[in-house]
Amino acid sequence: MSVYLDYAATTPLRKEVFDCYVEHLQTLGNPSSVHSSGQLVRQALEEARESLAKSVDCNRSEVIFTAGGTESVNLAIKGLFWQRVGEDSKRKVIISAATEHHASLDPMEWLEKHDGAEILWLPVDRDGVIDLDFLEDYLQEHHENVAFVNLMWANNETGVITDINRVTAMTKPCGIPVHSDSIATFGHIPISFSSSGLSAMSVSAHKIGGPVGAGALIVSRSTKLVSIIHGGGQERGMRSGTMNAPVAKAFAVAAELAVSELAEEHLRLEALRDKLVQGVKNITPLAHHTAAKSPRMPHNAHFTFDGCSGDSLLFLLDQQGVCVSVGSACQAGVNGPSHVLLAMGRTEREANGCIRMTLGKQSTEADVDAFLSALPKALDGALRAGLTT
Ligand SMILES: Cc1ncc(COP(=O)(O)O)c(C=O)c1O
Fold first, then answer.
1. In sequence order, which residues have a C-beta less than 8 Å from that of residue 303 and are 6 or more positions away?
2. Which of 10, 30, 81, 142 is the most buried (most CB within 10 A)?
3. What topology is assigned to 15-257 in CATH?
C-alpha cells in the first residue's frame, strides 16, 4: 500500500459517495422529461442542488452543475468576458495573477490572443501574497475598462489564501464582477458564497472525496454571463446538456460530508501538517518551507530543496511507496518549473526544486512518519542526480 500525500491532485472517492452514486446510476429517466420517470430523476437533481447550495452557502438557483472544475472556470472567465464586453466594448481588462491554476491562465490567455482581452497581472510577492493595494490603486484610475477580476481563493500549489472579501469590497462600488476559483478551498476551510461578495465561484467534486468530472459554477442571481455551451438551455441557459443527476447527487454528498467534518479535520490536518513541516526541517537545512508566514491552507506543505530537482525527489519517494507532487502537473505528466514559484520571484532552479505534500481525510500520523523516513534516502539520491545534471 502506498502512502498518498497528494490530496490536492485528487482524493479517494468516499464510501458514502460511491454508494449514493451507484444507487442513482440505476434510475432511468432524463431530468428534463415530463413523465414520472424523468421527474423522479429531476427530483434527485434538485435535491442535490439544494444540498450543494447549503454546503457553499448560496441560493439553490445559483448552482450551475458542470462536468468539473476546468469547465466551471472556463464558463466563468469566457462567459463574464463576453457578457461585459458585449455590454460595453471598453471593458477589455481582466485582472488576475500569474499564480492562478492553468484552468484559469489558459482561457484568459486564449481570450487575450483571440478576442482582444487585455490582462493585468497583479504583482505577487515572494510569500505568494497578491498585492491588493495595487489592485485598489488600479481600480481608482481605470475601473471603467475592467471586464472582471479573477483570483483564486487559495493557491493549489503553495496553499496561500487570498483575502477575497477585501477584493470584493474594492470592486463592489465600481460594479465589477469577481470570479474565484475555489477548487483548492471549498471543503477545506469555511467559505460562504453569500457573504463573499463574489459574482461567481468554481468548485470541483474530486478534491473533496467526490467523483472526477463533477463540478459547479456558483453564479449570483444578479450576474449575467454568456454561455459557452449551447443546446437545450438547461441550467438557467448557462450550461446546456442533459443534467447528470447521479454525479450531482454524489457531489452533494461529498460536499456535505466535507463541510460537516471541516472544523475537526482542519485542526487534525493542521497538526499533522505541522509535524511534517517540522520533520522536514529537522532532516535537512536544504529545505525551505514556502510561504511559511502567509495565511495558508491547513493541509498543505510546500518546500523547495537546494541542489535537487522536484522531479527526482518525486521519483525517488515514489520508489519507496510515497506519492507526493511537484505541484505543477501538466499535460501528459510532463513537469516544468512551477509557474507559481516563478511568479513569486523564484529562479528557474528554485522553481524546479519543489515538492508539495497535501493531506486529507484518510491521512494519518503513520503516513507522515513514512514520508519522513523515506525522505533522507530520496534527498541523497536527488542531490547526487542534481550534481551530475
Ligand atoms: C485550483 C484548481 N483549479 C482548477 C482545477 C481543475 O479542476 P478539475 O480537475 O475538476 O477540472 C484544479 C485541479 O487540479 C485546481 O486545483
1. 280, 287, 288, 289, 290, 354, 355
2. 81
3. Aspartate Aminotransferase; domain 2 (3.40.640)
Q: Fold identical between 3-10+262-388 and 15-257?
A: no
Using the mean position of ligand 1's atoms as its centre, give its distance from the Cα of residue 205 in Å.
Answer: 10
CA neighbor of 167 nearest in space, from 188, 187, 146? 146
Give 54-105 pLDDT, tens digit per residue: 999 999 999 999 999 999 999 999 999 999 999 999 999 999 999 999 999 9
Q: Residue with the nearest Cα to atom 13 of ligand 1? A: 9
Task: Select the CATH number that applies to the domain covering 3-10+262-388 from these four: 3.90.1150.10, 1.10.1040.10, 1.20.1250.20, 3.30.2350.10.
Answer: 3.90.1150.10
Per residue in 192-231, pLDDT tens? 999 999 999 999 999 999 999 999 999 999 999 999 999 9
Question: For a substitution probing ligand 1, which of 72, 156, 331 has the most ligand atoms within 8 Å of its CB?
Answer: 156
Name which residue sits closest to atom 7 of ligand 1, judged by CA.
69
If you measure from the C-alpha of residue 360 to the centroid of ligand 1, how many angstroms do you get, rounded to a whole number?
Answer: 16
C-alpha cell at 110: 486564449
Could you count the other beta carbons within 10 Å of the beta carbon of residue 294?
17
What is the whole-number distance in angstroms between the Cα of residue 69 and the centre of ligand 1? Answer: 5
Ligand 1 binding pocket includes 356 (Cβ within 6 Å): no
